[in-house]
Amino acid sequence: MTPEVLVRDHTIYSCVMGSRAFGLATEDSDTDRRGVFLAPTPLYWRFEKPPTHVEGPADEQFSWELERFCELALRANPNILECLHSPHVDHIDATGHELLALRDAFLSRHTHQTFVRYAQGQHKKLQSDVSVHGAPRWKHAMHLLRLLTSCRDLLRTGRLVLDVGEDRERLLAVKRGEVSWREVESWMSRTADEADEAALSTPLPAEPDRARVEDFLIRTRRASAGSALDAARL
User: What is the pTM of this model?
Assistant: First the structure.
């Protein structure tokens, strides 16, 4: 079974991400699509296993196999967690609905460190751009500010909300290079400090609910195997 067929015929959930999910889209914004596919269980009985992820087949499309997606979500990977909270769902089936029902099971205090580590890495890249070119990549600076704000609000409320709401115009001004790098860095530092403060009293649990997620994965794999065996008897 080719990767393209896995995405075409076995996707359980797909959504729009990027600027369109964050409320930052403009006329020239791309449409980034992310998805989760469930590889049929019998494919794991072979020496050659199914792929953990597939790029394409459409432009700006990327999908993960369900198990890999869950692993990354349990590690509080920012990009993966955000996929579960996109306001724009392209496709979802019954298994996809079960996955979305588990959104709170993936959230934990680990999001503080994973989001901050990701932000620190992106900040270093922006600083390198400033050193080499005299200015950062303003679009990346905008998205880093968005991520830090999202992290802070998640730690404060226990809810991950993607849309930037009233911050839209300020962030788009950053994207256009209308805000000085000094001001942007100050904004980043202030928001990071607020996230650190929120982490001290966050309503998020200390750990994700790994057992609940694993139970879902096992039931899903078992159902897939049962369907394949039933088909073989026909």
Answer: 0.91
Locate 97 and state its tokens.
């609905």
Domains within the chain, CATH numbers bracketed: 3-107+209-233 (3.30.460), 110-199 (no CATH)
The angle, 0 to 180 degrees and rounded to 10, between the axes of the packed helices 181-199 and 110-133 is 170
Give the tens place of pLDDT for each residue, 191-221: 999 999 999 999 999 999 999 999 999 999 9
Three-state SS sequence of the chain: CCHHHHHHHHEEEEEEECHHHHCCCCCCCCCEEEEEECCCHHHHHCCCCCCCEEECCCCCEEEEEHHHHHHHHHCCCHHHHHHCCCCCEEEECHHHHHHHHCHHHHCCCHHHHHHHHHHHHHHHHHHHHHHHHCCCCHHHHHHHHHHHHHHHHHHHHCCCCCCCHHHHHHHHHHHCCCCCHHHHHHHHHHHHHHHHHHHCCCCCCCCCCHHHHHHHHHHHHHHHHHHHHHHHHC
Q: Is the pLDDT of residue 40 over 90?
A: yes
